[in-house]
Amino acid sequence: MKQSITLGKVTKFMGLGFLGTIKDLFTGKLEKEDLISFLRKVVVPFASILLFIGLWHMGSQSLYNIEAEFKIEKALEDQGPAAAEALRACIASGESGCQPNTLPSPSQVWASYQSLLRDHNIISADKAAFIEKTAVLNEKRIAEGKDPITYTGRPSFVDQIFRSLKTVFAGFLLALLIAVPLGIFIGLSPTLKSAFNWFIQIFKPVSPVVWYLLVFMIVKTLLIDSNEDSSFTISFISVGLCSMWATLVNTAMGVSSVDKDYINVAKVLKLGPFQKIFKVVLPSSLPLIFTGLKITLSVAWMVLIAIELLAQSPGLGLFVWEEFQNGANDSNAKIIVAMFVIGIIGFLLDRLMLTIQNWVSFDKTDAI
Amino acid sequence: MAYLELNNIYKTYGQGEHETEVLSNINLSIEEGEFVAIVGFTGSGKTTLVNLINGLIEPTKGEVLFKGQPVQGTSHERGVIFQNYSLLPWLTVGQNVYMAVKEAFPKKSKKELNEIVANYVEMVSLTPAINKRPNELSGGMRQRVAVARALAMKPEMIIMDEPLGALDALTRGNLQDEILNIWGKDKRTALLITNDVDEGIYMADRIIPLRPGPNATLGPEFKIDIERPRDKTELNDNANFKETRNAIIEYLMDIGNERKSEAQEAFVLPELEPKSFVGRFK
């Protein structure tokens, strides 16, 4: 019996089943019985999104008014009624110089998002032009054995996103390479377990900031001769060390709690130690390992922002920090845009892991 | 010299005060080519006995001799069919059998190994399901995979630990016939652990009841002198069958009654005043 792969199955597999319901709605395949499930899966989320935006709008309006009144009051006290009237008129006219600085409204955030996209288009056009301009010169330089000239302009918002993703994946890979093998050894040997237990218990709750400082101390000395910018190295190592604990603990637990029946099978078949690990122990602990990896990836993405901010490594964290320091009129709105982008990417990363987990796991029950 | 010999086996679990003797003074000898069934209540230590014979655990006292040699660890010469199938759920039917065959015949080429796998899967008539995973199969099919896996290693002795316990009556009957067929073909030695007296009589040459544990020990043996191949429907009218069956069931009932009378000992609860918590949480 061959199973065909349909769009519906793929989306369901990725935990995005609601897309299928929307598709059914437009293709008219929806049955009456599905109406309730349609209401629940499509209408309710949309309604709650609208409600959220509405509340946000009202909240930002009232914050705006509080801030504006405070500013006018202050002007009245310090500079007299004429200045207060001028400020009131200035705020009402919407001029950017005198706007109260508070929580931006949804429309402001949307405008900032579009301005960030425009900015990205300008910068990428600029970059393309630069590459075109220097192409001939660079060829010559490479022929002469010199380094090519690279674009050193300001990175756009989209570039920052990709930098952040690069850092998080490097950190995740580091966590994977350390935590999974170590977890397997700890899970297999009670001696190693008691040797490492204090280490795990003590270092697991350490905050990302402290990890960053620790990595900074070590990497700074190790790369003392190099002129390269070490911020990327430092930030991805810190991310990896911060986030690896969930995988380490889960792997060790999965490996040490393999069903006794499977171990008996391995004994009766007289599997060698390698065969036993790769054919029995690992497949059986795979679901737990993946649960750990999923937590690791989401922790990595969460601490990344803080670590980039500290390490001054380009990325979303640095973007947020620079906008906060910048204090321009639309800075707050840009921070909120970054917040949504961070949230959405975190969600997508989680789905990605879930998809991979469903793919490799023998246990096809829905993982959450 | 017997093929498999158990001499004065004792097995205890726990230590000190918590020590319980599961098996005591077990003596058993099985000849080559014989089919022996051990019948016992659940919880009487049957699985412990099986694990002693296949080498997963060691006796506290006494020795297990296989072909005159003490059993040390598991061996490919003794194939085991577990009570709960114990198939690896991440491997397909074919891969489950292949893994066993590969370990048993490490020198054979991949093609030869695949042929063996195909043969044994065919033998338990699961060829259409060879690429399915265990959780897509019914209980009976899974147990057939376990049978194929154990037999494909060409063990000299087959040890079956309540292999059909979890199956419905119809599937059970079919599988009994299949196992007998395979056993009959090359007359391997077989040891069947079961809680079903009829199954034991239908399949075995000898039935030995296991008196329930703790301190489980083997009872007197019952020889089954019914000619093979045995017919299930005719068996019911066979005088010999009825006699043996009644004798075994009577024996087991007696043990059960003995146990009951032991259990009827009254346990007197100590006279205790309930503790008062009043004023504790002030």
Automatic annotation (TrEMBL), chain A:
SUPFAM superfamilies: MetI-like. GO terms for cellular component: plasma membrane. Its main location: membrane. PANTHER family: ALKANE SULFONATE ABC TRANSPORTER-RELATED, MEMBRANE SUBUNIT (PTHR30151), NITRATE IMPORT PERMEASE PROTEIN NRTB (PTHR30151:SF7). The keyword Transport applies. Belongs to the binding-protein-dependent transport system permease family. It comes from Algibacter mikhailovii. This is Nitrate transporter. GO terms for biological process: transmembrane transport.
UniProtKB/TrEMBL annotation, chain B:
This is Nitrate ABC transporter ATP-binding protein. Residues 4-237 form the ABC transporter domain. SUPFAM superfamilies: P-loop containing nucleoside triphosphate hydrolases. Coiled coil: none annotated. It comes from the Bacteria. InterPro entries: AAA+_ATPase, ABC_transporter-like_ATP-bd, ABC_transporter-like_CS, ABC_transporter_ATP-bind, P-loop_NTPase. One of its GO terms (molecular function) is ATP binding.
